[in-house]
Every structure is written in structure tokens, then in C-alpha cells.
Write a structure and sequence with these properties.
alpha+beta; 51% helix; 4-stranded mixed beta sheet; 8 strands; 4-stranded antiparallel beta sheet
Length: 240
């Protein structure tokens, strides 16, 4: 009996030690639940050198809840990928703006992307606000595409020119909105992220404005340093 107690104590101490090792040198505790998922595999991915690399993999067996301990340089966009096995669903990759601290992702198996509720990140809140506005721009663009298709049969040049003019104005309006959004929120890492991912080809003076508005913490973040480096390269190329 004593031997069994000693063995049990050893096993428990080993588990505690393993958990402690897992938490050590990490700054992001990610928790979540995928309602309806009983079996599968989750991957937490990061963009590195233009490719997605796996930071952690989590096996789901019976319990739909998951947990991960990660270490990130600064707030950045990560991806929660669900391996559905034999299904061909494209609803399997969920981007989220990770920040050091505690974060929670709650969603469902049936609508993995659409049902996602993400908490614990101020950058994520801003990212969701940004996505809502982008949806409105995309809806307007789809309206113009429909007009263009309707005009294709009539071949009305005036209508075609009008549609092209509207499309050009919409693109400009969208770019200016993103530039302004990034400038207003230059105290958050989403600012350089959007500058690089959404409007990298905008006039460099807008990127300069975003860069100049960033505080010291954002400027030394992963995306802050990338933006500064990108602006320097743009200027070198444009001066040739």
C-alpha cells in the first residue's frame, strides 16, 4: 500500500513538473472551447518568412475545450486551424490578434469562423471593428460588379465609364479609411499590421504618418519594426 502511495505521489509530482515546464518562458495563455467538436486536431500557426509555421498542436478527444501556452514577441496575428479530417470544409482557419496575457476563443464546429467570439485582446477588438467596415466596402464593390455585369450586354460606354469612376473612388475611399484607422489607433500594433497587409502600396507619405504616430512600444513591436524597414526600402526604390 505504501509503495502504491509513493508511486502515485511520484506520478503526480511529474505531472505538476511537466505543467510548470510548459508554462515557463511563455507570455500568452490561450483557452478555448469548440462546441460540438469531440475529436480532431487544432494547430496554432504563425506567419514566418511568408509561410505558416506551427507554434502548437492540440489533440481533441472527447473534451471540446483546449488550452495552450505560447510565447510571442509582441501582439501579432495568429491562426487557429482546425483539422476536420476527411471533410473538405473551408471554414477551418480562424485568424486572431494575439496579445500577451490571457485570451479565450469560443466557437462551434458547425460555424467555426462565423461563430467565433474572441476575448482578451484590445487589438482583436479593433480588428473586428475594422472587419465590419471592410464588409461594407466589399458589399459596395459587389454592387458595382453587378452593375458591370448588367452593362456587359448593353455595351453602354457612358455607363461603363461611370462604373469605372465609382470603382476608382471606392478604392481610394477604402485606402484612406484604412490609413486614417491606422493613424488614429497608432498606439496599438494593429496600426502597422494594417499598413503592411492592406495598404502597402499607398503613397509612402501615408505610411510615414502612421509610423510617426506610433508610440515607442508599438514602434519596437514585430509589426512596428517591419513597417519602418518597409518604408525605408520603399523610399530607396522610389528614389532610383
Amino acid at each position: 500500500m505504501t509503495r502504491k502511495i509513493i508511486v502515485l505521489a511520484f506520478v503526480l509530482s511529474s505531472i505538476i513538473a511537466c505543467n510548470s515546464d510548459k508554462k515557463e518562458n511563455t507570455n500568452l495563455h490561450l483557452m478555448g472551447n469548440i462546441e460540438g467538436l469531440s475529436q480532431g486536431k487544432l494547430y496554432i500557426q504563425q506567419v514566418k518568412d511568408s509561410s505558416l509555421v506551427i507554434l502548437d498542436s492540440i489533440m481533441i478527444k472527447g473534451d471540446s475545450k483546449f488550452e495552450s501556452f505560447l510565447n510571442i514577441e509582441s501582439p501579432e496575428m495568429l491562426f487557429l486551424f482546425l483539422d476536420r479530417g476527411q471533410t473538405n470544409s473551408i471554414d477551418n482557419n480562424l485568424p486572431f490578434f494575439a496579445e500577451p496575457g490571457e485570451m479565450k476563443i469560443e466557437t462551434t464546429l458547425s460555424s467555426f469562423f462565423a461563430d467565433a467570439k474572441i476575448s482578451g485582446s484590445k487589438n482583436q477588438v479593433l480588428y473586428e471593428e475594422f472587419k465590419e467596415m471592410m464588409t461594407k466596402f466589399n458589399d459596395k464593390n459587389m454592387g458595382l460588379v453587378e452593375k458591370e455585369l448588367e452593362n456587359y450586354t448593353t455595351k453602354n460606354k457612358n455607363s461603363a465609364d461611370s462604373i469605372a469612376s465609382e470603382a476608382s473612388k471606392l478604392i481610394r475611399k477604402k485606402y484612406l479609411y484604412i490609413a486614417n484607422f491606422a493613424t488614429v489607433h497608432a498606439d496599438k500594433e494593429i496600426a502597422p499590421f494594417l499598413a503592411l497587409s492592406e495598404i502597402a502600396d499607398i503613397n509612402v507619405r501615408y505610411l510615414d504618418t502612421i509610423d510617426s504616430k506610433m508610440n515607442a512600444e508599438v514602434a519596437k513591436s514585430k509589426y512596428g519594426k517591419m513597417l519602418k524597414s518597409y518604408i525605408e526600402e520603399r523610399k530607396k526604390v522610389e528614389q532610383k
